[in-house]
Amino acid sequence: MKKFQIVALIAIVAAIAILFSASKDVSEYATFEMASDGQRVKITGEMAKNKAIEYRPDIDPNIFKFFLKDSEGKEKQVILAKAKPIDIERAESIVLTGSLKDDVFYADEILTKCPSKYKDEELSLKKV
Amino acid sequence: MNEIQYIGEHLWVGQVGHFAVVLAFVASIMSAIAYSINAKNENYQNNWRSIGRLGYILHGLSILTIVSILFYAMYNKYYEYAYVYQHVSDDLPLKYTLSAFWEGQEGSFLLWMFWHIVLGWFIIYRGTKWESPVMAIFAMAEIYLSSMILGVHLEIGDWVTKFGSNPLLLLRETMQAPVLFNNADYVSLISGNGLNPLLQNYWMTIHPPVTFLGFASTIVPFAFAIAGLWTRQYKKWLTAALPWALFSAGILGTGILMGSVWAYEALSFGGYWAWDPVENAVLVPWIMLVAGLHTHLVARATGFSIKATIFFYVTAFPLIVYSTFLTRSGILGDTSAHAFTEMGLEKQLIAFFMYFFIIGLGALVYHAKNIPSKDKEESIYSREFWMFIGSLVLLFSAVLIGVPTSLPVYNSIVSYFDESFVGKVIQDVVPFYNKFQIWIAVFVAILSGVSIMLRFNEKNFEKRSSFLMKHLGISVLLSIIFTGILTLWFKLYSWKFYLLAFTGFFVMFSNLDYIITVIKGNMKLAASAIAHFGFGMMLIGLLGSGLNKETISTNPFMFKDMFENEDDLRNYVRVIKGKPLWAQGYWITYESDTLIGRNRYYDVEFKKVDENNNEIERFKLRPSSVYSNDFKTQNVFNPDTKHYLTKDIFSCIVALAPTKQDADAAKLFEDSLVWNRHDLLIGDTLRTEFDNWYVINELSYAPSHREYKPEDNDFGIEVNVTAGNYKFGNKFELKTALGLQGALLYKYPDGEEDLGARVRLSDTFIEEIFSSEDQLDYQEIEVPSLETFEFEDMEISLTGFNKEPVNRNYEPEEGDIAVSAQMIVKKDGKSIPAEPIYIIRGSSPMGVKSYVPEFGVHIRFTNIDPVSQKFKFQIAKDKRKMNFSIPLEITENVSRSDYLILQAQVFPAINLLWFGCMFMMFGLFMAWILRMKENNRREREINS
Predict the structure, then answer these.
(1) Minimal Cα distance from B86: which residue of A?
(2) Number of domains making up chain A
(3) Could you tell me the fold of the domain covering B1-200?
(4) Has residue B658 got a pLDDT over 60?
(5) Residue A24 in contact with partner chain B when CB distance is under 8 A
(6) Structural domain boundaries of chain B?
(7) Which residues in chain A are closer than 8 Å to B426, comparing Cβ atoms?
(8) B349 pLDDT higher than 50
(9) Residue B195 has pLDDT above 90, yes or no
(10) Exposure string (b/e) for B169-192, b if CB count within 10 Å is 16 or more?
């Protein structure tokens, strides 16, 4: 066997091993139900309408509270360790990373998917 | 319904544009066919080539027409066009017109095509034997790209599909707004949406053209590799393609680097690389190009790894297209912070990259047997062997970035077949990628450090081995020493990072050694050593700025025991205007703010102190906020950074008080305030439940409130209030006014953030002291000459007349006869002038009354009797009480709004990162220029 083939073989074995080991860092999008064991999860949902959202930078700028409705329709309070993301009210969907503790979801990462800038927007008219 | 004849539309723009779009598409097909037919022709200078050229030139001219006409429409703000409407606005500064041009997807496709045209025309101009096959590939890509702006709807039965999105569609063709579009003159009513404030930044002007030139340039190595296979000149293409590949890797790398600098310098991301899918997607093809460059050099020098080079080049370009598919299809919505949303071109983009994957890899497989490869094995002591291994490591890196980034694609494919499929996601993205890439970096560093000292086609290693051992040994030793020194600067935490630091130094020293001892400072041979030196430097910079990033703005007294990793999460502090805040050895003070254009700049002073609070240094940073186009919100923040040689101090506003950030929130807040009325006499002290006290010092009829403009008001009244808090022992001067303008009453409140209080005058106050005309009982008084007379408790003196009276309630007209009576009203030892005017306009008498608010007296000058020489006045008094109280309204416990939520971080060694990256790009460009010159010289030799 050529040296090159040996190297290639090692590389392939290593690649499989790494991708295999990486697969444990990959998980499914969770629901509140699945997060009930307190594991760190990524959860998708949308902001629960008509529930309180609270960002009080004068009290603690690192805390933003709101309610998330998960993909199964369950609503729970979220405490996010960040400032209030811009336009979160308009987000179509929200992805949070964190864990559930005492019925509150503590999140430290957030990603919001916003609708296209021009969709459903009123025409902007000249100011008279 | 009748067709509406719209006015004010510039329809010729769209007509020219539509024609050019179709022509561009058709011409690219013509060019692709003609060039393809001619691709394998030995006698390439024939009519097919001419047709191909004609097609490509025509295509290029059409695209340039669309670009110029669209730019023209944007420049002149023809809002009847949807693209113009969406991307520019009346208030958009002209310098951002270019940014607005490529903000949208159609514009960015045009930019991409523009570069393909420039590169393609250059290749046509050179007119080498490679022109036909290479340009056939160019033209094919242009068919796909111009189809993206075609904007054709195909209907076959029930099946409707959209081909492309035309940038020159009219707004009324794309939007449903029947009321507006029933107006024939709707054009005069609309104004554009404008450019996203986040993108109103010079980076948006320079980053996209560079990045798209990078995108466009990757097609050249692809096309040359295909041309080599097509013409079965499996080796010859390598020479012609080398400068192009170097250029492409350099310019694409520069584009990525600029994106990174932009994110760090001007956006509020708080970093330069986040393993975001959008970043990863374009990093993968760059790594493939760089891997290809290495096997390319091996192939040129030794004849090994031609197939590998073709493989890397024919995947890099489709991967670029794939990356645009990822960012433009909306598929990354759940995983990326900054991807586009979908616009219905997904299928076209898939067809685009699949086509080029298939023809690229298909051609490689088809020709694989015929591609020459060496029977002899490369020596383990040769440079080519280790360079090849290095390329494999890079491929490995690309796979480990590309596959996880494509997880959303996998998810959408699986859920297409299985609707109950939930979708997989990487839990914590940054550690996930770092974990693998750190080993890639270690391997690449060791390989490039060692192989630079080896030689191609090594046949006599024994002789060289002692030289090699000695030199590598010195580099290893120096690297160990320097890693030790580095730990004095910043922490390395774990053995993996020690190893990475060591390898970073090793590649730097080994490449320096190569420049000094092997090529003896001959810079013409130093390009690769410079690039690799930069790679090592970049690794050290990454360790400093990534691993040792420190947060100044920590918030240790805030929430506890909620998050496990809470020390890393408390990153923001609240800085109140004028009140220094201590954080991590700095006194941070928000001093003031200034509005410049659409940006509000906040002056924040940082004072670094030692343990004894002695000042070490102080500097000012000016992070800013950007107002939305309608000035209602300020949600976008730009950071400011203090640069040192060894570190950066980065600051960015994270939020403002909600009432400052959003005009609607401010209105809601104002409406929610509860005002309590207190009737006070001047000099009375009021004490409230919040331990605040208030005293009215003075009532004045000439308000000096900062917002009050006398010319807008008929009558103004103001009180000066001194207020303070018993507990804090502070004292503030406040001023609040009322202004009456016709029947409208304006309030001018005042407040003090430190007291949490605001004061204003009750609007009944005006009625209490001021009577309107119909409530007044005028008394007629005749004055025979300049004399003093009594009126109730006042003395009024008529002192003279003025035939050219000036009064802001009187506008003289031609033919007016106007006289004013100069009077002095006296009461309680106070004298105040009054000057009513008597006017005869035409034949009817008029007047402008004079009001003395201090005494509440209204004086009208009603007649001059020409016979008796008497002057008639009408005088009335307001129905106000003798010692009236002042109704002061107070609201308390108001939360303050004069603060910033600030993030401040230290990035150590970040300059090593930037300089390292610049050395890498410099090395690539240097190699590009040298190889290009070499090729030109060879060509001249062949021709002569």
Answers:
(1) A118
(2) 1
(3) Four Helix Bundle (Hemerythrin (Met), subunit A) (1.20.120)
(4) yes
(5) no
(6) 1-200, 239-426, 566-662+898-906, 674-770+887-891, 773-877
(7) 25-26
(8) yes
(9) no
(10) bbbbeeeeeeeebeeeebbeebbb
Q: Residue A125: what pLDDT?
A: 59
Which tokens is B329 given? 């299809």
Give the residue from B532, B550, B603, B466 showing the smallest Cα distance to B923.
B532
Residue A121 lies in a domain: no
Cα–Cα distance list, B726 to B729, B751, B755 (Å): 5, 17, 11
- Specify the residue for token string 């433009």: B328
Instruction: Identify whether A32 is part of a domain.
Output: yes
Q: What is the pLDDT of residue B500?
A: 96
| CB-CB under 8 Å, A28 with B425 | yes
Bridge partners, A43 (sequence order): A30, A96
Question: Residue B331: in which H helix or E strand, if any?
Answer: none
User: pLDDT class for A1, splitting at 50, 70, 90?
Assistant: low
Asked which of A2-16, B31-45, B515-529, B848-862 is least confident by mean pLDDT, the reply is: A2-16
Amino acid making up residue A83: A
DSSP structural state of residue B546? I
Strand, helix or coil for residue B252: helix
pLDDT at B539 over 90: yes
Tokens of B349: 């983009």
Q: How far is CA B819 from the centre of its chain?
A: 62
B819-862 pLDDT, tens digit each: 899 999 998 888 999 999 998 888 888 888 888 888 889 999 98
Distance CA B77, CA B89 (A): 7
Q: Tell me the chain A residues in contact with residue B388 when contact means C-beta distances shorter than 8 Å.
A: 4
Q: Write the pLDDT tens digit of every residue in B314-330.
A: 999 999 999 999 988 88
Q: Which of B334, B564, B575 to mutate to test the interface with A (most CBs of A within 10 A)?
A: B334
> What pLDDT is stored for residue A10 in this prediction?
85
Read off φ and ψ for residue B825, nearest 5 degrees: -105, 135
Token pair for residue B99?
Answer: 């940014």
| pLDDT per residue as tens digits for the range B437-496 | 999 999 999 999 999 999 888 888 888 889 999 999 999 999 999 999 999 999 998 999
Q: Which residue has the tokens 């000012």?
A: B620
User: Maximum Cα–Cα distance for chain B, whole Å?
Assistant: 135
| Burial (CB count <10 Å: 0-12, 13-18, 19+), residue B813 | exposed
With a CB cutoff of 8 Å and minimum separation 6, the contacts of B890 are B675, B676, B678, B686, B688, B694, B757, B758, B759
> A10 lies in a domain?
no
* Cα B177 to Cα A120: distance, rounded to the nearest angstrom: 11
Query: Binning pLDDT at 50, 70 and 90, where does residue B570 land?
Result: confident
CB-CB: which of A3, A113, A124 is closest to B380? A3
Q: What CATH number is attached to the domain comprising A65?
A: 2.40.50.140
Q: How many CB pairs under 8 A join A and B?
A: 149
Which of B385, B563, B659, B896 best tests the A interface by mutation, with the highest count of A CBs <10 A? B563
Amino acid, res. B177:
A
Over chain B, what is the mean pLDDT? 91
Q: Which pLDDT does position B397 carry in this prediction?
A: 93
Contact A62 B388 (CB under 8 A): no
Share of chain B above pLDDT 70, in %: 98
CA atoms within 13 A on the CB side of B257: 17
A29 and B566 within 8 Å at the Cβ level: the answer is no
**B275 touches B928 (CB < 8 A):** no
User: Which ipTM did the prediction report?
Assistant: 0.89
Residue numbers of the domain that contains A59: 27-113
Return the closest-CA partner of residue B861 out of B937, B927, B801.
B801
Rounded CA-CA distance B793/B630 in Å is: 55
Tokens of B485: 């020194």
Q: Is the dihedral of CA B693, B697, B702, B704 positive or negative?
A: negative
Residue B30 has pLDDT above 90, yes or no: yes
For residue A108, being part of any structural domain is answered with yes
